[in-house]
């Protein structure tokens, strides 16, 4: 049974050709959280890409910034049905981080401080599609939004843009991350509405 | 000889385990061993699903995702749940 | 009674009236409602014409079959509570799912130990249900309610709580923003000392039910533990917020 409630329309949902199906435009930036907010300091922050041979490529905060920080303006689509358009970010392209990483593996597990994980194809992280983001809307990324640094992969649902990112581990197969184990889609294209597996 | 059956035989045992309300059942955290009613977990609700964590060690006890035509339930962080008989 | 299977019900709004400056009392007629234990909650599901749905949980203030009373606070930036507070009219139908919860409940005849209820704001709703059930059952365990609220105008179930007060049920108010005229304490937040002086002492071994915002509950529980109450005697229900 599903009774229509007289007078209820929910939050305003306006059609907009920049919104993928099932999305609602928001102005504020909702905080989604599946656990306590980790307290990560940039002076001890360490980012690591681990390849299939076990080689670890490390960057400190200063080494990350030295790779070059770029301005990014993108639309963000969260699987919980909100979208935020034209968000301004600053971050380091993953192309720079992968420059000297030799790998045959096609998949990546993103790992965060606090234990969160999410899986992505490597090709979705390269060619100007993904960043380690350190600022949003002109401010350093605050801890609730994943600061000091989060993954930013705007062409996929936002759960793929792991908050509190600490590293990427190469994988030969597309293993499931945190939400993917609980029924979310392995890839997560918002335009195809790939919410659930 | 060892009796090895298939999962069908669990039907009777499982039938009364899916109780109408499980929040007052006591369960054990696989990580730290704390035993407490499920109602005492810390639940993060502002997320793509409900995530229940241990109040002692923050380990993920359970997750529930409403995936439209089905609901995913993970109890991976609970090593045992005590049920009334 | 203990494991009463929850179900979906169609509820008809019988009455909606202001409860506080930002809350309403909704009286629902639910012919299929089996009654509920004191402290339980239910989910209200709203459905838009295009199929969009939003569901939120609310504590139940009543226990009898066929009738449900809710006290609903309007949350700033909320999606369901502003609709329930401002838009709903008598005669409207709502879908509800319940009764839910078997942990944060008080059952008559459970023990002779004192019961301490501690409410922050609209957290009083399930605790009011416990106090009403206690009176209806003529249960002999002594009850006390400590109720922290902004101003006298924000008190839920004012007349009902006053009517329940008596030899076995005492109510203490803490006004955080504005006390009534002639009140002997200035308005201000609950403190550990005022908590200690208005609640059953640890040696009386009360069972304690705390309901309020997440911040309120965490502050109160920390104080209760410092005062010497045992963790397993404290039951909590947080409804979010700061």
From TrEMBL, chain A:
InterPro entries on file: OxRdtase_Mopterin-bd_dom, OxRdtase_Mopterin-bd_sf
Region: Disordered, residue numbers: 1-23
Annotated ranges, domain Oxidoreductase molybdopterin-binding: 35-179
Protein's name in the database: DMSO/TMAO reductase YedYZ molybdopterin-dependent catalytic subunit
From TrEMBL, chain B:
InterPro entries: DUF6510 (IPR045423)
Matching Pfam families: DUF6510 (PF20120)
Protein name listed in UniProt: Phage FluMu protein Com
Annotated organism of origin: Jiangella mangrovi
Lineage, top ranks: Bacteria, Bacillati, Actinomycetota, Actinomycetes, Jiangellales
TrEMBL record, chain C:
Pfam short name (any one): NAD_binding_1
Cofactor: FAD
UniProt keyword annotation of Magnesium present: no
Signal peptide limits: none
UniProt cross-references to InterPro entries, sorted A to Z: Cbr1-like_FAD-bd_dom, FAD-bd_FR_type, FNR_nucleotide-bd, MRET, OxRdtase_FAD/NAD-bd, Riboflavin_synthase-like_b-brl
Single GO term (MF): 2 iron, 2 sulfur cluster binding
Protein name as annotated: Ferredoxin-NADP reductase
Provenance organism: Jiangella mangrovi
């Amino acid at each position: 049974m599903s009774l229509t409630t007289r007078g209820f329309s929910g939050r305003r949902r306006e059609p907009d050709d920049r919104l993928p199906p099932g999305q609602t435009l928001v102005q504020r930036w909702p905080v989604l959280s599946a656990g306590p907010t980790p307290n990560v300091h940039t002076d001890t922050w360490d980012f690591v890409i681990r390849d299939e041979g076990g080689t670890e490529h490390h960057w400190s905060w200063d080494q990350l910034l030295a790779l070059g920080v770029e301005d990014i303006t993108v639309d963000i689509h969260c699987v919980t049905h909100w979208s935020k358009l034209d968000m301004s970010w600053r971050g380091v392209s993953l192309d720079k981080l992968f420059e000297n990483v030799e790998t045959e593996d096609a998949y990546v597990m993103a790992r965060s401080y606090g234990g969160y994980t999410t899986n992505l194809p490597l090709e979705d992280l390269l060619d100007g599609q993904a960043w380690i983001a350190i600022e949003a809307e002109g401010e350093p990324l605050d801890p609730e939004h994943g600061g000091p640094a989060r993954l930013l992969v705007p062409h996929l649902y936002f759960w793929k843009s792991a908050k509190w990112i600490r590293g990427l581990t190469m994988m030969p197969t597309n293993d499931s991350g945190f939400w993917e184990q609980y029924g979310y889609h392995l890839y997560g294209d918002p335009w195809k509405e790939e919410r659930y597996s | 000889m060892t009796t090895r059956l298939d999962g069908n035989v669990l039907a009777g045992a499982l039938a009364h385990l899916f109780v109408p309300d499980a929040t007052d059942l006591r369960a054990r955290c696989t990580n730290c061993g704390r035993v407490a009613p499920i109602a005492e977990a810390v639940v993060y609700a502002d997320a793509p699903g409900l995530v229940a964590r241990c109040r002692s060690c923050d380990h993920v006890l359970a997750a529930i995702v409403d995936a439209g035509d089905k609901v995913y339930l993970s109890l991976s962080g609970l090593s045992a749940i005590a049920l009334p008989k | 009674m203990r494991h009463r299977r929850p179900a979906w019900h169609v509820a008809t709004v019988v009455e909606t009236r202001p409860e506080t400056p930002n809350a309403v009392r909704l009286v629902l007629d639910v012919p299929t409602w089996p009654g509920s234990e004191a402290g339980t909650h239910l989910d209200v599901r709203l459905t838009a014409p295009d199929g969009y749905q939003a569901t939120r949980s609310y504590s139940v203030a009543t226990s009898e079959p066929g009738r449900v009373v809710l006290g609903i606070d309007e949350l700033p930036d909320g999606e369901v509570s502003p609709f329930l507070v401002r838009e709903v009219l008598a005669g409207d139908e709502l879908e509800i799912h319940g009764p839910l919860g078997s942990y944060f409940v008080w059952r008559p005849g459970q023990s002779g130990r004192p019961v301490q209820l501690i409410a922050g704001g609209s957290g009083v709703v399930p605790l009011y249900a416990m106090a009403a059930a206690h009176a209806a059952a003529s249960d002999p365990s002594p009850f006390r309610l400590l109720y922290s609220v902004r101003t006298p105008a924000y008190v839920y179930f004012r007349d009902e709580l006053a009517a329940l007060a008596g030899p076995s049920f005492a109510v203490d108010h803490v006004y955080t923003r504005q006390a009534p005229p002639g009140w002997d304490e200035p308005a201000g937040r609950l403190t550990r000392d005022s908590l200690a002086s208005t609640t059953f002492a640890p040696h009386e071994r009360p069972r304690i039910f705390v309901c309020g915002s997440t911040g309120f509950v965490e502050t109160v529980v920390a104080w209760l533990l410092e005062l010497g109450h045992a963790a397993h005697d404290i039951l909590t229900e947080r409804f979010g917020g700061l």
